[in-house]
Amino acid sequence: DEGALRQGVEAARWPGRMEILGQSPRFLLDGAHNPAGGEALAEALTDVTRARLLIVAGVMCDKDAEGILSPLLPLAAHVFAVSPRVERAMASGDLATVCNACGVASTNAGAVADGLAMARNAAEPDDLILVCGSLFTVGEARAILLSDSFEPCRG
């Protein structure tokens, strides 16, 4: 029946897709990993109340980093570029260079855990920390934020 269908859709959860974790500051995890995903995420952020937006981003080396992040960068106060623990990950320094070239201050944060810590230290209580750029980045960040064990995989 239509009511049951509506209730099921409203109750559905997809970890790592528009997922909010924590508070003061809040973390928003979204696995946007292609230009269309970056655009959709930027559009969705118009509905998210926040002071500043800090981004922790990690992208695979075979993806269009500038295309993914360009819709998001104008919204960001700062980007913490990270490299998740998978073979295909773009070096965090290369990603920071892309962000800086687009006119957004960024830090080469290295590992995902380090980027999360730097973003948390830089954030004010009403800021939003967005983790995006790859499902690998989001999965690693989610495990860290939820204090779950994390085993890197081949990617």
Protein model, in words:
By secondary structure, the protein is α/β, with parallel strands linked by helices. The protein has a single domain, classed as Alpha-Beta Complex (Protein-Tyrosine Phosphatase, Chain A). The chain is 37% helix and 17% strand. It has helices at residues 2-11, 35-44, 65-69, 92-101, 112-122, 135-145; strands spanning 19-21, 26-29, 53-57, 78-82, 106-110, 128-132. The protein has a six-stranded mixed β-sheet, sandwiched between helices. The chain starts with a helix and ends in a 10-residue tail after the last helix. The relative contact order is 0.22.
CATH third-level topology: Protein-Tyrosine Phosphatase, Chain A
Secondary structure category: alpha/beta
Order of helices and strands: HEEHEHEHEHEH
- Total helical elements: 6
Mean pLDDT: 91
**Strand neighbour order, sheet with most strands:** 1-2-6-3-4-5
Task: Measure the end-to-end span.
Answer: 41 Å
CATH superfamily: Mur ligase, C-terminal domain
Shape: globular
What would you call the quaternary organization?
Answer: single chain
Domains (count): 1
- The proportion of residues forming helix, as a percent range, comes to 25-40%
Low-confidence stretches: none
Under the CATH scheme, the architecture is Alpha-Beta Complex
Return the CATH class: Alpha Beta
Describe the main β-sheet briefly: 6 strands, mixed
Strand content: 15-25%
Radius of gyration: 15 Å
| DSSP E strands, number | 6
